[in-house]
């Protein structure tokens, strides 16, 4: 079964508990109550509380800290988290430059979920990291909303076509914050990141990543040399597109599918933008009053 934004929480919880009996209504309520007095947080849905509890392996205290860190990053990088619209011009540009698709794993069960990325157009002038970051945040919200939780998220990136012209465009400060967000603020379980066709340009990016990322995150990243097919030691062929030796459809099919799915829930993103921006204004106003 898949969900929608109108799926009642009672039904969402019931189905998620068939995957993870450790998810209990009482624990979700305890998590909510532990954050009742935190004025820095926006309104958070019960489905999102469930996601954080799951991502933290059902540890209520860790889930509390993760939620606080997550929204701290939302307000530190509002252009990434608070301005999400799949129909924005920059999203259309990203859609034409990059192919980003969720692979056809059985998303209604608890098995790992695979996101695949590769260049459609290697023109560095079309490529923008901010658009990529926003796209990934939208995907993360979409996959939780539509499919719920799973054992782990696996990201596979075919880096063929990456060159130094792409690398010099990296916004170092924001990229560093995004890496920290991956470490301490995710409402999903990030299991692994696989980089295919990893050449000299990939090594340049990894030097930057090593400066900012902790050891736990670095250990989740696996580089696969140019021409290697050892990715299939980790992921089955039917979970990857034909262009990288998989038995799935073309990457462009999955790119179109995910983009259209994001457009379908555009109203959810616009509503979330409004909630987050109102909360950010409230927090900033309160801080200004404290400074007076």
UniProtKB/TrEMBL annotation:
Residues 78-252 form the CRAL-TRIO domain. InterPro entries: CRAL-TRIO_dom (IPR001251), CRAL-TRIO_dom_sf (IPR036865), CRAL/TRIO_N_dom_sf (IPR036273). SUPFAM superfamilies: CRAL/TRIO domain (SSF52087), CRAL/TRIO N-terminal domain (SSF46938). GO terms for cellular component: membrane. One of its GO terms (molecular function) is phosphatidylinositol bisphosphate binding. This is CRAL-TRIO domain-containing protein. It holds the Pfam family CRAL_TRIO. Coiled coil: none annotated. Gene3D superfamilies: CRAL-TRIO lipid binding domain.
